[in-house]
Amino acid sequence: MAKATDGDGTPVPQRLLAAATRLFAERGYDRTSVQEIVEAAGVTKGALYHYFGSKEDLLQEVYARVLRLQQERLDAFADAEAPVERRLRDAAADVVVTTIENLDDASIFFRSMHHLSPEKNKQVRIERRRYHERFRALIEEGQRAGVFSVATPADLVVDYHFGSVHHLSTWYSPDGPLSQQEVADHLADLLLRALRP
Amino acid sequence: MAKATDGDGTPVPQRLLAAATRLFAERGYDRTSVQEIVEAAGVTKGALYHYFGSKEDLLQEVYARVLRLQQERLDAFADAEAPVERRLRDAAADVVVTTIENLDDASIFFRSMHHLSPEKNKQVRIERRRYHERFRALIEEGQRAGVFSVATPADLVVDYHFGSVHHLSTWYSPDGPLSQQEVADHLADLLLRALRP
DNA sequence: CCCGGCAGACTAACCAGTCGGTATGTGATC
DNA sequence: GATCACATACCGACTGGTTAGTCTGCCGGG
């Protein structure tokens, strides 16, 4: 079999995905040409279209990766053995940390989702909805248990928190005064304080 | 003088701006061709390039309009005669309402800002920063007065709130269960509750 | 000898911006 | 009040450049 890795040790599909992620985040999906991606990955168009059906498939793959990762982590935190306040706090802080750790994916996610074809967009929305639901269920559990205020509908609270997460890619910089963990703690704090009965 | 309005009563530059706003929000800046804009406005390219220097100028004009509007409104609320809690609450709720009222502009703003050339981008950032500062000053005033918690840096609180505002264009629908005012009240509530000492 | 894994030239489409042209209004001059 | 000069407001064909995706073919291992 011909080599799938070349000079670098990592396989070509992953190199392409990594290059695409960086470039999409840097200049945006439409402003990144397929030619630039393959050059950054050290291959040619032939290689890209051998592994991916289209430029859009590349974008979708970035989404799928992020979604899988975040859903896994949320499930782990939500299903842990601990009081609801604790589980929500941990989940809320964790999504901040992992978002900051993958800021490129995050900015692609929020800026380029509408570039997907209707069907693929629908698919992504469905998965995102599942994530949203799980988070909401946590809040509703706390509301039923009386530890969270019921003044605001749980749905809106979820959107409130994820708005701030979404927003991270706009302002967070690793060179800023706050570390990832500090930001995560603060944002989780704000959420829980807003939910105090 | 030749007509600047034609069949429709509104002047051509405004028709162009309105068409561009709708299309940019619908398909994104890069996916909207100049040809589509002029067709939607019922004119031709000659007219567009007569009034605007480039496609990018059109985008910048959309920004400038939103920024002016929001800054004016914030200033009015922030400088009012009332306790800080009240002024912050009113300002926080108002930005939600005006954002929902101009959802097209909002989604363009947050999705297409990086399509501007570096200089124009810088200009927009400067104006946005001024807005941010004014909002932050309100929170700090409340913190000094002891009516807001100092647990979270004011900067972060501002980003927290504007994250949720930013996010509105992703999920809010006028056909949903909540009216503009209800959403605004809830989000302002969440902010103030998070700030309770 | 066959097939996965690629190279790279090629194509068909598209698009921002230009440019020469037309039509209508306005102000000055005689 | 007729003529001329000039400006504003637009039209639409054209250009130069870019781009996603295709296709033919080479190359090396099983």
Structural domain count of chain A: 2
CATH architecture classification of the largest domain in chain A: Orthogonal Bundle
Mean pLDDT of chain A: 92
Largest interface, counted with CB-CB under 8 A?
A: A-B, 36 and 36 residues
H-E order of chain A: HHHHHHHHH
**CATH class categorisation of the largest domain in chain A:** Mainly Alpha
Rg calc of chain A: 19 Å
Please characterize this protein's 3D structure.
- Chain A is mostly helical.
- Chain A folds into two domains: 12-51, Arc Repressor Mutant, subunit A; 55-195, Tetracycline Repressor, domain 2 (Orthogonal Bundle), CATH 1.10.357.
- In chain A, 73% of the residues lie in helices and 0% in strands.
- Chain A has helices at residues 12-27, 34-41, 45-51, 55-78, 84-101, 103-112, 118-144, 154-171, 180-195.
- In chain A, α4 runs antiparallel to α5.
- Chain A is elongated.
- At the A-B interface, α8 and α9 of A face α8 and α9 of B.
- Chain A binds a DNA duplex (30 and 30 nucleotides) through residues 1-4, 12, 33-35, 43-47, 49-51, 54-55.
- Chains A, B: It comes from Streptomyces atroolivaceus.
- Chains A, B: Residues 33-52 bind DNA.
- Chains A, B: Keywords: DNA-binding, Repressor, Transcription, Transcription regulation.
- Chains A, B: Pfam families: TetR_C_24, TetR_N.
